[in-house]
What does this fold into?
Amino acid sequence: MGAKGTAKGTATDRGHALTVIALSRAIEIAVNETGLTSSQFRALSLVRAGVTSSSVLARFLAVRPPTVTTVMNGLVDDGLVARARSTDDRRRVDHELTAAGGRALDTANSAADAAMASLVEGLDADVQSRAVDALDLWRDALDAKRSDR
It folds into this structure.
């Protein structure tokens, strides 16, 4: 069966990896146009979600701690994130989203949503809904995998 029919074989046979990369790039371009890099966007999103320590941010971003430090330094310098001593462990520094950081993240999320909407605008409503539902399933799978680490 072809790409439009039922599953022909592996995800690789159907080009899923290239589709994910292309989708990621479309979102990255939209986010970059708001002035944020994709790394900054991901970091701000995680801080808003309550991930505040550098070590946990590194795990969620799948990067080494020095990379997180570099990204967070830039966000602090730009006034998008503030550092604060942890109330639980005075040796640990936590990160907090500033009002400007919240606005920047909202703008980037809106740009990403607009890019996604543009990509599916030619599809009927049911297919658009299925595409969004599939993304939710992938998020759940990624969250489950992350929690296994």
Observations:
- The domain at 17-148 is CATH 1.10.10.10 (Arc Repressor Mutant, subunit A).
- DSSP finds six helices and two strands in the chain.
- The first helix runs from residue 16 to 32.
